[in-house]
């Protein structure tokens, strides 16, 4: 065989089978999400309130709902609060999750099994149950956290209301969401770590690379695709968080200063019966989610083109 012929790259034959196989999934997604999404999009351009639920035809208002949102200081406060909350929470979740994955990869089999079972239990706990436990922990009258902190000399935490102050409220919410999300990140990253050859790590160690250099130059680049997808998912999930914030608000304050986008949409729709405005906010959240997803999709396209 000549050098020229051996250098010829054999291209795999492309068929339509992969596209045929994803058709059922696409159909189910369209059936399950298509109608609600279309209804929500149409409602965002209508005046749709309590009267429309009793049969009155909705009034088409165009972009009036979106224009009104732009002039609402409350909306911008909720949007800014939600973006900061989701970025900080997602970043801390990924950092802690990576740390737990590295710990699982470094310890022995027995310790690893204990860690994995513990995180599975935290991950499997229902949201309502986990939030209730945190409400008990931070209760201002009988909470364990106040009791332990108040026992420290010079620290006065007697009847401190964690859920009555926006700063400490979102601190508690962040700890709760991070605690429930770390297992997913840890297991995903640990699965990526198991694909790294021990010989490569041993060779780097023999060459004099310290732990930080091995992580940044070998481990980090190899698990980068995993980190990208888990960070994206955490940003999307934390941006739309609803149940935890609602339950914590029920135990604390009902003020709008404690709202994120999920609870703000619910308040506009279910409480104020302004479904047009609620749909407009939902469309904005959808656009933000698509923008976040496009960053990841663009990287995938670049990697595919580079092959």
Automatic annotation (TrEMBL):
Compartment(s) where it occurs, according to its Swiss-Prot or TrEMBL record: Cell membrane
Occurrences of domain ABC transmembrane type-1 (ranges): 79-296
GO biological process per UniProt: transmembrane transport
Listed transmembrane segments: 20-42, 82-107, 119-138, 167-193, 214-237, 275-297
GO CC annotations on file: plasma membrane
Topology in the lipid bilayer: Multi-pass membrane protein
Pfam family, one: BPD_transp_1
Keywords: Cell membrane, Membrane, Transmembrane, Transmembrane helix, Transport
Keyword Signal: no
Domain of life, source organism: Bacteria
Family: Belongs to the binding-protein-dependent transport system permease family.
Annotated protein name in UniProt: Sugar ABC transporter permease
Organism listed in the record: Protaetiibacter intestinalis
């Amino acid at each position: 065989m000549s050098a020229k012929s051996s250098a010829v790259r054999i291209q795999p034959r492309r068929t339509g089978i992969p596209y045929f196989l994803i058709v059922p999934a696409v159909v189910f997604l369209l059936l399950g999400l298509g109608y609600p999404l279309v209804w929500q999009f149409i409602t965002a351009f209508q005046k749709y309130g309590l009267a429309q639920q009793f049969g009155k035809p909705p009034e088409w208002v165009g972009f009036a709902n979106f224009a009104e949102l732009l002039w609402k200081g409350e909306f911008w406060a909720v949007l800014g609060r939600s973006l900061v909350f989701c970025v900080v929470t997602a970043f801390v979740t990924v950092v802690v999750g990576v740390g737990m994955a590295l710990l699982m990869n470094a310890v022995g089999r027995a310790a690893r099994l204990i860690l994995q079972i513990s995180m599975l239990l935290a991950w499997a706990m229902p949201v309502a149950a986990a939030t209730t436990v945190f409400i008990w922990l931070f209760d201002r009258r009988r909470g364990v956290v106040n009791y332990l902190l108040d026992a420290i000399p010079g620290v006065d935490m007697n009847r401190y209301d964690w859920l009555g102050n926006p700063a400490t409220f979102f601190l508690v919410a962040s700890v709760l969401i991070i605690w429930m999300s770390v297992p997913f990140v840890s297991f995903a990253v640990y699965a990526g770590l198991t694909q790294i050859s021990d010989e490569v790590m041993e060779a780097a160690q023999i060459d004099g690379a310290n732990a930080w250099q091995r992580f940044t130059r070998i481990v980090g680049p190899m698990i980068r695709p995993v980190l990208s997808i888990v960070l994206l998912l955490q940003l999307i999930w934390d941006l739309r968080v609803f149940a935890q914030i609602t339950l914590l608000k029920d135990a604390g304050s009902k003020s709008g200063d404690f709202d994120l986008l999920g609870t703000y949409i619910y308040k506009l729709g279910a409480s104020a019966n302004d479904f047009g405005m609620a749909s407009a906010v939902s469309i904005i959240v959808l656009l933000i989610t698509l923008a976040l997803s496009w960053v990841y999709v663009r990287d995938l396209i670049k990697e595919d083109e580079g092959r």
